[in-house]
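---------- Forwarded message ----------

FYI, see the Pyrroline-5-carboxylate reductase record below. Original note from H. follows.
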Amino acid sequence: MEALPIPTDTFKLGFIGAGKMAESIARGIVRSGVLPPNRISTFHANPIRRQAFESFGVELLHKNGDVVEESDIVIFSVKPQVVKDVVLQLRPLLSKKKLLVSIAAGVKLKDLQEWAGNSRFIRVMPNTPSAVGEAASVMSLGVGATEQDGDLIAKLFGSVGKTWKADEKLFDAVTGVSGSGPAYIYLAIEALADGGVAAGLPRELALGLASQTVLGAASMVTSTGKHPGQLKDDVASPAGTTIAGIHELEKGGFRGILMNAVLAAAKRSREFSQSQ
């Protein structure tokens, strides 16, 4: 059966897997007005997860097969270890009329397409800040997915942050930067706050200042278009406090440590994808 354009005004969206990431994406889609909740469905046996989706109007169905049959776009948001079994189980329902999306880390498009018997697949890698509408999502189109399909998925994931298109061969590196990157920044925020406490600040004030400072610095990079090195230079006046702090960071190999963290996470992602 030939792939048909998804009806952009009336399409229905289904999530196979109703975990926290799926919830974040669904909430963002509803909050942004891209899709009303009554055109989104999912299934989960756990009443707590069911309640989480029902709380903002998503339809809860009786089984995953019902979700696929109801939907024009199906997002597989299950753990990487089980995605093969889930896709194979649903394969008879995965016709080319349906646009399929996977957010399972480390699972390649060629495998997804083979398991589904459908090459109209798009792989997306979001990250956890999707929960607050600030995701960094990267997508790669399977051989059967059209540019219109890609634009539609970019719109959906754009409702929870920013999206980029990239060749799938870059996804391990993407994992190292945006997939694992939030955890590095949480460590940095915690360390900044600890430094503030060590210098005499109350814990609550130190944590508030540290987190807002990181948020503000990131916003400066994205909104001004300036290179972060230039923004750093703007803060670091001659013989001042900032350059003294930067000197300590450089002595500790701060930049090299972050670069190594990205490379280590990318290497682990590559190992994981090769084991599929």
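H. also flagged this: The mean pLDDT is 93.
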